[in-house]
């Protein structure tokens, strides 16, 4: 039972983080012309974040060793940042 409560709490935190991350550019668009996201930009960002969250959930459930899990999740977040930076400004 305790595992289900932790899983539900983790999902709420991840979902809240995704909403906050998607809200930030929306709010920035109200104050500056520097940020111009279209609906497809928000959709692509939501898809990328949701895919990353689902992959994170898979890693947390499948990898028991905390060190290996940490290294794998760090790689996942690094990959997310590389894809985000390339999509945003074409860094690579």
Automatic annotation (TrEMBL):
<feature type="transmembrane region" description="Helical">
    <location>
        <begin position="12"/>
        <end position="31"/>
    </location>
</feature>
<protein>
    <submittedName>
        <fullName>Uncharacterized protein</fullName>
    </submittedName>
</protein>
<keyword id="KW-0812">Transmembrane</keyword>
<keyword id="KW-1133">Transmembrane helix</keyword>
<feature type="transmembrane region" description="Helical">
    <location>
        <begin position="37"/>
        <end position="59"/>
    </location>
</feature>
<keyword id="KW-0472">Membrane</keyword>
<feature type="transmembrane region" description="Helical">
    <location>
        <begin position="71"/>
        <end position="91"/>
    </location>
</feature>
């Amino acid at each position: 039972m305790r595992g289900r409560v932790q899983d539900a709490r983790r999902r709420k935190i991840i979902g809240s983080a995704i909403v906050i991350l998607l809200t930030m550019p929306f709010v920035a668009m109200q104050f500056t012309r520097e940020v111009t996201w279209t609906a497809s930009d928000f959709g692509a960002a939501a898809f990328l974040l949701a895919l990353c969250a689902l992959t994170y959930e898979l890693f947390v459930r499948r990898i028991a060793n905390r060190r290996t899990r940490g290294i794998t999740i760090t790689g996942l977040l690094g990959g997310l940042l590389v894809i985000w930076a390339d999509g945003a400004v074409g860094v690579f």
